[in-house]
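User: Second chain of the day. Same drill as before.
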Amino acid sequence: MIVMSEPHSLEPVVLLNEVFPGDTNSMDTLYGGRLMSIMDTAAGMVSSKFAHKEFVTVSVDALKFRRPAYQGDIIRTTSKVVWTSPRTAGVHVISCRLSRSEWEGEEICSGFFFMVAVDSEMRPSSIPQFSPTTEEEKELWEMANNARDAMG
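Assistant: Same format as last time:
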């Protein structure tokens, strides 16, 4: 198999989701599991955009839930590949809540998702490698690498 030397895209993926009544608990706040699902979807999409492959989630770093989102809010989730190993993409995902009256993002959760490229038989496959160049990219690479190492 030929390994691609360059990623297809380094651009982030941005998802917008509305918080509906079925997405909320008795306090009218978004279920954490629903938010994790949105974040996982964004991580898979950006990984596929990066490598033009299918990906599955292999692990998730400890997510930091900072504040709630409420019924009627818009959730903006931004995902970006920030780390790679031969078959794995490390994705930094940030979700923000947007109120309909202001449309300014307030971070509600962030973390790292680790996605493995798989072929049609669910076997791991090689991906292009990401090389950080800016200080921000180098910092996120190190954070993702530390999160991955901490997971054993």
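The mean pLDDT is 94.

User: Great, on to the next one.
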